[in-house]
Amino acid sequence: MKKIFETERLLVRELQEEDWLKVFEMNTSIEVMRQIGEGKIKTAEEEQSSFKSILANYQKGTGLGVWAVVRKGDNTFIGAASMAPLADTNEIQLGYRLKKQYWKQGYGTEIAKGLVDYGFNYLNLDKVTATTNLDNDASRRVLQKAGLSFEKKDVYNNWPMNYFVIHKKKE
């Protein structure tokens, strides 16, 4: 298991084969997926193919990917975090999703702040971006608490989104 980063309460690490059912459960929750792009639920076969692709991507060593988010105290899988290219751009966007029972506990903000730090200090990015569905006020608040600012509405992957950005402070 490779650690990506940790926060006060959370460990972000590479996904492992034994995480499959937890990821599948989260990604087939209508409430969770409602705010991810078009909100479509993939078939079990599509999810398994995606999961295998995520695991294979670790071998590339890019520092980008999708990772497990677990609580430090009890090693409970609560969600996923990611750093990935933003569609049709040269930018890197942060992403996260949580199982519903872990919403409204500050975990999203903790993950987003950790991802910003990871982007600036490990990936050496000058800026980190994020997108949300237009009506996703909860994620808008999370991103703003993590220091990102709303910049514009645009279309990514043929879907209208809010675009947020944070720039690395010059020393």
UniProtKB/TrEMBL annotation:
Pfam families: Acetyltransf_3 (PF13302). Residues 10-171 form the N-acetyltransferase domain. InterPro entries: Acyl_CoA_acyltransferase, GNAT_dom, N-acetyltransferase. This is GNAT family N-acetyltransferase. The lineage of its organism: Bacteria, Pseudomonadati, Bacteroidota, Cytophagia, Cytophagales.
